[in-house]
Design brief:
The protein is built from no helices and 14 strands. By secondary structure, the protein is mainly β.
Length: 186
């Protein structure tokens, strides 16, 4: 009888070692554990507004490991009027410090098939109770035709928040997509 093709194995290595626990880590600190359920582990990715200097954290719970991009915010909304609408608000919290909010806002007027894009930077200082704008915000924009009637504003909101507001054009239906991040130092 031939032994061709038989691999010599050490019975002490069978079956192979399989991880039984996955640890979440944030700046070297354990942030939970995930344990496979029926040999299945889920890996998810998301964004959160949590302030984290590295901009990234990993959490674990149940049989799920979650990769989080931190210091991020996003929203998509539609309006069909010329009223002002706050589309994003974030409380600044009780820790004194300085924020720099940066965001991109894309607008599409589905009534007239026109578009606009805005890149905005807003520095805000907080004493933990009251927000103060440091300087005028910087807005870089590209607007097409009647989209120049659309208004985008951002800044401090009393008493201690950051906001982004849009104002539409006539009764046109405008779709807004806001994606942003922030940096905080205290």
């Amino acid at each position: 009888m031939s032994q061709a093709g038989v691999i010599a194995v050490n019975s002490g290595n069978l079956p192979p070692n399989v991880p039984t626990t996955f640890q979440g880590q944030n700046s070297g600190v354990n942030d939970g554990s995930a344990v496979p359920a029926a040999n299945i582990i889920n890996f998810n990715a998301t964004y959160v507004t949590t302030n984290n200097l590295s901009g990234f954290e990993i959490t674990a719970s149940g049989n799920t490991v979650t990769y989080e991009l931190t210091n991020r915010y996003q929203t998509s909304q539609n309006f069909s009027d010329a009223a002002a609408h706050n589309i994003y608000t974030q409380a600044l919290g009780a820790t004194p410090g300085v924020y720099l909010f940066e965001f991109t806002l894309i607008a599409f007027n589905s009534t007239s098939s026109l578009g606009a894009a805005y890149k905005v930077e807003v520095p805000i200082r907080t004493d933990g109770a009251t927000a103060t704008g440091i300087v005028q915000q910087n807005i870089y924009l590209a607007e097409e035709g009647a989209m120049s009637g659309v208004t985008v504003s951002a800044g401090k909101l009393a008493p201690n928040s950051f906001f982004v507001s849009v104002q539409g054009y006539n009764t046109d239906t405008i779709k807004y997509n806001l994606t942003g991040s922030y940096t905080f130092v205290s």
